[in-house]
Specification:
With about 170 residues, the chain is of the alpha+beta class. It is built from three helices and nine strands. The protein has helices at about 5-30, 45-50, 55-60, and strands at about 80-85, 90-95, 95-100, 105, 115-120, 125-130, 140-145, 155, 160-165. The strands form two sheets. The chain has a six-stranded antiparallel beta sheet with strand order 3-4-8-7-6-5. It has a three-stranded antiparallel beta sheet with strand order 2-1-9, with no helix packed on it. A hairpin with a 5-residue loop joins strand 1 (about 80-85) and strand 2 (about 90-95). The protein is globular and about 40 Å long.
């Protein structure tokens, strides 16, 4: 007969295995660039690994997420432009950046023709993933809890971007 303790331990172990499996699946099967998608800038994984740091590769090419409050770009308040760390496409103007208190650089609007989005159903929920339009790099997600005038919060991984100071 199955005791309550055995049932609870088995359930906890099964849940942990499912979560671990979905996280490792996210990093391989749900990579930011599906094989059938064609972008202006494309490289093999080996080429991307030469061009990017390990953390940039994990985020941009494997849809990883950096730790909150770990990016210096979260505290960047100068005028300038945030661009893709993979292909240098300008993505966001500093004039649309705001402090969302989430630990990641946040913007209420991307530059024109800078990003694409797609449905992301990993982790058991549906979100909108934001990708660089030119190289398909995973940048983060967009949510509908941002400030006026758009009401959107583009919650971006700082490691996926570079910052260039100047007029923006």
């Amino acid at each position: 007969m199955l005791s309550r303790r055995t049932f609870l331990l088995t359930s906890a172990a099964s849940s942990a295995a499912l979560i671990a499996g979905s996280l490792s699946w996210r990093n391989t099967a749900n990579a930011a660039t599906p094989a059938s998608t064609v972008y202006e800038v494309m490289h093999s994984d080996a080429e991307w690994k030469k061009l990017l740091t390990d953390q940039q590769f994990d985020v941009l090419r494997r849809a990883g997420t950096e730790r909150p409050y770990s990016s210096p770009l979260n505290s960047e308040h100068r005028r300038g432009t945030f661009s893709c760390a993979g292909c240098q496409l300008p993505l966001f103007s500093s004039s649309t950046k705001f402090d969302s208190h989430t630990g990641w650089p946040s913007f209420w609007k991307p530059l024109a023709r800078a990003v694409n989005d797609k449905t992301d159903s990993t982790l058991g929920m549906e979100r909108t993933e934001v990708l660089c339009r030119r190289c398909g790099g995973h940048l983060g997600h967009v949510f509908d809890d941002g400030p006026a005038p758009t009401g959107l919060r583009y919650c971006m991984n700082g490691v996926a971007m570079n910052f260039t100071p100047g007029a923006a």
